Write the structure tokens for this entry.
Amino acid sequence: MDTLDKARDYEERHSREISPEERPVYHLTAKVGWLNDPNGFSYYKGKYHLFYQYNPYSTSWDSMHWGHWTSKDLIHWDYEKAALAPDTDYETGCFSGSAITDKDGRHLLIYTAHNEHGKGEELFREETQCLAFGDGENYEKYEANPILKHKDMPEGAYKADFRDPKIWFEDGKYYCVIAARLKNGLGAVLRYESEDILHWRYKDTIKANDGSWGRMWECPDYFTLDGEKVLSISVMNMKKTEDCYRNGNCVMAFVGDSEKAQPLDVGLDYYAPQSMETADGRRIVIGWMQTPDSGNCIPESQKWFGQMSFPREMTVKNGHIFQQPIREIETLYTGTVERSVTAPDNTVIEGISGRCVDMTAGAKDASYFEMKFVVKDDINVSLSYDKKSGYLILDRSSSGRSAAICDYRKVKIGTYDDFKLRLLLDRYSFEIFINDGEHVLSGTLYETPQDANGIVFSSDGKVDVKLNTIS
């Protein structure tokens, strides 16, 4: 049995040990074991395909495979067999990459082959780019892999940090952007081009780190959105500030010609997003709801680890990226409750509770607003907004989590007379969209009891709430 067949056999047998009740209701998790970056987000032969960094054998990171889901509507997903496994002499892990339909109608995967062996002075580590061609189910690695090596990088660049190709087709050519570490030790995004998808050449450096944005960059995405070029990067080793980057890793985006980056998610758990354009022209993005530093905090009882964010539609308004859950979420609603009430300290509103919900809430002409959710006894997560200071505060420290990880965010968002939010809450996660998605905060809830489903509000303004249950 080869490496890929072994992984497929293992995931098929052991996934049966995980009941649907032990998984999220509407967020994606690994078939079994560990999950991180989304990969190969694409549309092929009538289905959306989403792959993921995957270790089927453990809930911890290790030798990376590619897991695989498919969907016809971006909402209901089917587990497919593992797509890639490290089974050649040039790879000990199949790292992140992307997918496209090539000129011959094949589903093409481009990925990073990570090769690492030895320890200490004997340590060898190299990253190269490789291809695999398939039919949407089975994929065969190109016999002439790797197709991009250290010699194809700018002089002095690190061969150990050259990863995560994102591919597209434009004006008769294939292009891809790849994250790299240049000779100054800092991250950059390199662009390559090809006429035939097999032979590539370096074109230019789209963006290089000047030291303002961490050290190494990962998982670049490059696309046009509402007439603006957008480059998103996942930043490692970001310096902490009072407001941001307290976990050392973040996702930033540059829009148009702006040299000022904006965070795509200011919450606690979000990294390595990848996007695609749908047939109707929407730019949809999915991210890993975790960060590299918090990925080691795994509850002992967990049978799987790692979740994807719910798919989000991205738009640009006045140079700023907005994100909202895709409209298809409405097909999951099983009931709706609407209320408009005054809500002094920790007010319980009749009919407003639940663990799997899509809820909008807000307060007009209020000087402050606070919402607590997953409430039970002393357990809760709180989100508060103070109009005078313009600060938004997210606090997960009372959610029942035993591990010491980053649980607090304080973000300056400015002054709003009409403050509103949208909460996507599932069994093991939350995503909060502020003011139509101008700001987004994501987080996980691995150890919060499932019967912690209370929601309470505090505000000096009238609170309007609409709660849609999901099951």
Observations:
- The mean pLDDT is 95.
- The chain has two domains: 3-327, 333-470.
- The two ends are 39 Å apart (CA to CA).
- The longest helix spans residues 3-14.
